[in-house]
Amino acid sequence: MRLTARILASGAAATLLLAGCSPETTGTATPAPSGPPSASASANPAVPKVAAPLDVSKYVSKPCDIVPSSVLSSLRFTNPGHTQLQDEELGAAGPGCGWKISGEGVSMQVIIGTGNRDRGAGGLTGLYGAHESGQFPFLEPAPDVDGYPAIYVDKRDRRPIGNCVMDVGVADDVAINVYAGGYEGAEDSCAAAQKVAASIITTLKGA
Description:
It is a single chain. The chain has 207 residues and is of the alpha+beta class. It has one domain. 24% of the residues lie in helices and 23% in strands. It is built from six helices and seven strands, in the order αααβββααββββα. It has helices at 5-8, 39-42, 69-74, 114-118, 123-132, 186-206; strands spanning 82-84, 96-101, 106-112, 138-145, 148-154, 164-171, 174-181. A seven-stranded antiparallel beta sheet has the order 1-2-3-7-6-5-4, sandwiched between helices. A hairpin with a 4-residue loop joins strand 2 and strand 3.
C-alpha cells in the first residue's frame, strides 16, 4: 500500500503536514497547510516553542526507520512499512511511512514535515495557522511527548470513531505527524499514536 493522496496532499498531524482524511481509507494524516502561516499565527503565543530541537535529516530518505520495529511489533504491525518520499504531489508535506494490520483495517502512518518547513508552513506554527484559517477546524493541545509539545489536529475530531491524528513539534519549523486509524475509539487510537510518537522522540535523541 502506498500512502494515499489524501494523506499527503496532506495536505501530515499535524503534519506531516499532514491531517484529516476520511475514516474509510486505510489511513490518513494531516494534509499540508496550503501556505505559510500568517504573521498573527507566527506570533501566536498559544503555539508552544521547542526548547531542544531534534535533527530529522537522517530519516528523510528512510522514514520507516524512524519508528523502532519493536514498538511496531508491540502494536501488532508486523508487515514492512511502505515509504512515500517527498515529491510535489503525494509527499508534499514531507516523507512518510505507513503500516497496516492485514485484514483488520488498522493502520499507522508517520510523516516528517520537512516539506511543510521548506514551504514556510512548518512546525506547530503552520498547523495553528491552518487552524486559524479554517483549513483544520479541529485543534486541541495533546500531552507533551517526552517534553516535546504536541497537538491533536484534523478536519474534525475523529477520535471517538478510532482515528487519532497528532503532531509533535521536534523543532519550531518541523512537526512529525502520527496517525493511528481503524481502532475502537479515542483511548486506544491515541494511546497507539502516543506510543509511536514517544518512540520517534527516543529515536531522534539517539540519532
